[in-house]
Structures are given as structure tokens and as C-alpha cells.
Design a protein that fits this description.
disordered N terminus, globular, alpha/beta
């Protein structure tokens, strides 16, 4: 019966998993999990091992895979292929990395001001994380300044973000700790500026997470 149900869904929503080819699935959670490697958390400030001897005030960043191959393909299908269901699967797949990390909220990095995208890909990932971890999603950040898209630029070519790059859209009640989420982390600058805005709102960032990690100097 499950095969008939999958075929029926495929006729209505003609999609296939880009990894295994299963019909009626934008991305199988098992396929996404299969791309993840057992990475240890890194320092969000220098990308060295966490805990970090150089940055005692830092927090850990967790990531699923290097930004290459099939993992990169999934991120691009999510961002540019406008398939939000992929994001949910990526979030569910990532959830095991945060199994020992507790927080009051999961906060996605917001879309840039004036972005033409149909949805926030980081928010889609957070929805998957939230479903598995039972931590509420709080979409409480927005960009405070207009900056040019950063994804097409190598890390070395990106302009520094201003101190007030983000602002709080609202102050979620009862939230004292949060985990920040982005689809890709390349330099850590965006996450650090978002964490600064949350601190202004009296919210401590205890960790951040992304599906892929682009080594400093590479492209998104």
C-alpha cells in the first residue's frame, strides 16, 4: 500500500529525492543523514576545536558536512530550487548533533532585506530541528541594514558586516538561551552578528548549527 500511496503523491507532487531517486520525496531524511559526517563542534570565532583556548567567550558551531558534493547540491536545491521540503529533511537529519544541547529557542538567520526568495531556507531547516528536538522556533531577528548578497562571493571578497547588522523584531517571552541556525556557514561573521543582536535582547546564544561548512575563503 505504501508504494501505491507514494505513486499517488508523486502524481500530485511530481518530485523525486535527488540522492536516491525515490518518488514523492523532495529529500529522504535517511539520504540526508547519510551525507553527514561525525564532525566535532568548532569555535565560531576561529573555526578551531571547541572548547577554544583563544576565545573563552565563544560558543560551539555544529555542522553536518563540508560544503561540497551532494551536501552542497541539497543546499542549492533548497535555496535556488525553491523546494522548502528539503529544508525540513535537513533539519531532522541534523537534530542528532544537538541532542545534548538545550535551549529555550531555535532562531533562524533571516533573509536579506529585499531578497527575491520565496521563503527563508534557514527557517525551513529550523522547522525540522524543532520537530525533532521539541525546541520552539523563534523567528525574532531581521536584517537592520541592506547588504549585497554574500553567497556568490568568496569569503576574502566579502565586505565586513556592520556591528548593527541585525535587530530584534520582537522579544520572545521567557527565552533566555537560543541556538542560531543557518544553511551554510562560511566565515562565521553572519552568525556572530546575529548572536550580538540576541545578546542585546538579553538572550544568550549557547550554540549555532548549519547543514554545511564552507572553509574560509571558499564560495557558498
Amino acid at each position: 500500500m505504501s508504494g501505491i500511496a507514494d505513486l499517488f503523491l508523486h502524481l500530485i507532487f511530481p518530485v523525486t529525492c535527488p540522492i536516491c531517486g525515490k518518488i514523492a520525496s523532495s529529500c529522504c531524511v535517511n539520504c540526508a543523514e547519510g551525507l553527514l559526517s561525525p564532525n566535532l563542534p568548532i569555535c565560531i570565532q576561529c573555526f578551531g576545536p571547541y572548547p577554544c583556548d583563544k576565545h573563552s567567550d565563544s560558543f560551539p558551531h555544529y555542522y553536518g558536512a563540508a560544503h561540497e558534493g551532494q551536501a552542497r547540491k541539497l543546499v542549492h536545491l533548497l535555496k535556488y530550487g525553491h523546494d522548502g521540503a528539503i529544508g525540513f529533511s535537513l533539519g531532522v537529519a541534523l537534530s542528532f548533533l544537538l541532542a545534548e544541547t538545550r535551549a529555550d529557542a531555535l532562531v533562524p538567520i533571516p533573509l536579506h532585506m529585499g531578497s527575491p526568495r520565496l521563503f527563508n531556507q534557514s527557517k525551513k531547516i529550523v522547522k525540522g530541528l524543532s520537530c525533532k528536538l521539541k525546541i520552539p522556533l523563534q523567528d525574532c531577528l531581521s536584517w537592520n541594514v541592506r547588504v549585497s548578497p554574500r553567497a556568490p562571493k568568496a569569503a576574502k571578497d566579502r565586505d565586513p558586516l556592520p556591528e548593527n547588522a541585525f535587530k530584534m523584531k520582537y522579544f520572545p517571552r521567557g527565552v533566555k538561551t537560543a541556538i542560531l541556525c543557518d544553511d551554510v556557514c562560511t566565515t562565521g561573521a553572519t552568525i556572530l552578528k546575529a548572536a550580538s543582536a540576541l545578546r542585546e535582547g538579553k538572550i544568550q546564544v549557547v550554540a549555532s548549527i548549519s547543514f554545511t561548512l564552507g572553509q574560509k575563503g571558499t564560495y557558498n
